[in-house]
Amino acid sequence: MRAAEGSVRARLRDLVAASDPGLLRLAAGLRTVGAIALTLAVLSLLGADVRHLVAGAIAAMVSTFAIREKQRGPQAVTLALGLPVALASVSLGALLHTRVVGGDLFFVALIFCAVYARRFGDRGTALGLIGFQVYFMSLFVGATMSALPQLWGVVAVAVACSAVVRFALVPETPAGILQRLREAFRARLAQLVTAQLALLDAGPDEIDKALQDVRDGTARLNETAMMIQGRLEEGTADEAVARLVQRRIADAEIAAERLGLLLLNARSAERADTLTLHLPGAPVPPGGRLPVQDESTATLRRDLGALRLLVLRPVSEDLGTGLAQLRNRLLGYRDEENLPKASPAVQDVFRGVGEAARAVLGLRIALGDPQDDADDTPSTARSREELDAEDAAIDAGEEATEEAPKGLKRPTTRAAVQVAVGSALAIVGGEFLSSQRWYWAVLTCWIVFINTASTGEILVKGYRRLLGTVLGVVAGLLLAALVGHHTWTAFALVLLCVFAMFYTAPLSYTLMSFFVTAALGVLYTLLHTYSLSVLVLRVEETALGAACGIIAAAFVLPVHTDRRTNDLLVTTLERLADVTEAAVDQLSGGDPAELLDKARDLDQALADLRTATQPLTHPVTPLRARRNTARYVVALLETCAYHARSLAAMAELLPTHPSIAADPRLRRAGKRILGNIGTIAARVADGRAAVEVETGASIASLLESDLPGGSRYGRITDRVLRHLQRLDEAVVGLARPLKVPVATPKR
């Protein structure tokens, strides 16, 4: 019974870890709700009235979510600095309460400074948020000079309660977050293996969904790897340990992605295009079918289940020697040991399972899991020796810095000017709608500019906020009717909405706006200002604020979506060229380079591009051809990134693996790929550039004259050539949707 309960708890823990990597959303929601609840408790004991309770709740929420530093020391400093900023902001709000023109001018200046402060990093961003939101709070509760001393006390209590919750009740350390992210990576890796197993077994009517599940699982695994990358520096005391974890995470990610592609090949009558694994909606290649139902595929299903078990359970737990034997069998496939008799495509999957098992073993060693080597077979022992040799060869490198843009070209300066202009328009328009609640339009204008960089992104965000607000108004009506004037029931509902707001914020901006508006409906009830007309006014002010933000973004120092995506596309191509050039150079005998850092820079550039193309790929976008082109280009770049990461991973094996040798002739193959990447980047940067993409013989044939009789170094060199060939094809494939001329192959 206890074992069954433990298994259920473990599955539930893995499910939560996979759905919320690092439990970051859960912690953010609990921390914010805890700060608000503690503030309300303290203020109620001090006899505060409802208006001051509402002010305290808003101040506690702001002083909690505004802090973004990862280390506890900087968090404490920012929170301490936030208190005088908040006190000054609420004081000015009370002082300017009756001075309409002066108050409006100051509000616009405050908005400009709050956005401009983002150039100073997380602390500047936090202090800007606190200054703006507390001033907004003073407008919301109607702060006056006579009530100012009580509001000072309320703000001080809110900041103190936020500190207590952050550092005592819901504490977080970088090391703890990193540990939870590691567990999330394991859970998502296990989910991906489960999806791959479903892909193997899926019938004709299930294959499309199974393939999409594999795509989604691969994307989530990459997302978690990127989150770990962002926490390594703060979460590990030793830089060498950080490099080791980074390497093992990358190995596991690449091995899992390759396993998915091999499974796709096993289902296809012909070799599947790597693009199929990255393009949403792409069908299985013609001839897609179930593999032959024989003993080998039954073994493959069993081994995929064993691989999933290896991911989730240390060898020392539960199954002991039995799990070690499973591990040994899977690792044996790397050395062609005991490969079942099957088609070449299915045998490739077994080899992929062996590589994935090796990556899991390396991941366990890097994460400090208990190791049991008593039952190692020779192949397992060799895998451990390879991993130990790689660990010893890992060195930390220096990161290059790029010169930041200056003046109005600086994103923070441009955004500050835009949001100031948009807010001025929102103030004027908002005053026409309501002289009492015009600030809702300003708030919306402010919010649509946060974490956006182009007119299209602002348009999509404004649309989502308006939709969430309309739905929230309906919910607010129902909640207000339910609550009546029961103060603590209302605050309980507000806390639930706040938790839901922070928990869903990274997932859906529409949902977040829904919960914000629903909570506001309850707050208005508490302040005895609730009515249907107030909630309708909320929708009108929201629409006005979104419109003002879009107008400012479109006409004041605009960054059009096309320009933004082109700039990011050029950056992504440059990062792709950096990884490819460094990997090919190292595979050709060049000096070692920081390939993992370059690969992660490529992943980050691709993630930024994917975000920037959302306005083009959004379902409401009327230009379907443009939407399909954007999706196709991003999918091709993801394919390129996969092959570049794989080349980088193999290049890093050179110093420690005798079976892999440097081959200077690979430079000849890489030269054409790098030239084509540069050609496409030049054409995207300047549509009038007279350039052409070069095509011709296959990558392998470029080396045929020097490689009589086939590959000199065995299957690993063949894999290098396959990755180069697929990368070459994908890069040339980018030319058509990007309208880059392709040169006619010379005969």
Entry summary:
By secondary structure, the protein is mostly helical. The protein is built from 26 helices and no strands.
Shape: globular
Enumerate how many helices there are, as a single number. 26
Low-confidence stretches: 395-403, 705-713
Structural class: mainly alpha
Cα-atom Rg, whole angstroms?
29 Å
- How much of the sequence is in beta strands? under 5%
Mean pLDDT: 82
SSE pattern, N- to C-terminal: HHHHHHHHHHHHHHHHHHHHHHHHHH
Q: In total, how many beta strands?
A: 0
Helix content: over 70%
Major sheet attributes:
none
Q: How far do the termini sit from each other?
A: 73 Å
Any key phrases for this structure?
single chain, 747 residues, mainly alpha, 72% helix, 0% strand, globular
Give the arrangement of secondary structure elements.
Blueprint: H1 2-19, H2 24-45, H3 50-65, H4 72-95, H5 100-116, H6 121-141, H7 148-169, H8 174-201, H9 207-235, H10 239-266, H11 295-312, H12 321-332, H13 344-366, H14 378-393, H15 411-433, H16 439-449, H17 455-483, H18 487-504, H19 509-526, H20 532-555, H21 561-587, H22 595-612, H23 614-617, H24 624-651, H25 666-685, H26 715-735
Helix pairs in contact: 1-8, 2-3, 2-7, 2-18, 3-6, 3-7, 4-6, 4-7, 5-6, 5-15, 8-9, 8-10, 8-11, 9-10, 10-13, 10-24, 11-12, 11-13, 12-13, 15-16, 15-20, 16-17, 16-20, 17-19, 17-20, 18-19, 21-22, 21-24, 21-25, 22-24, 24-26, 25-26
Please explain how this structure is put together.
With 747 residues, the protein is mainly α. The protein is 72% helix and 0% strand. It is built from 26 helices and no strands. The model is unreliable at 395-403 and 705-713 (pLDDT under 50).
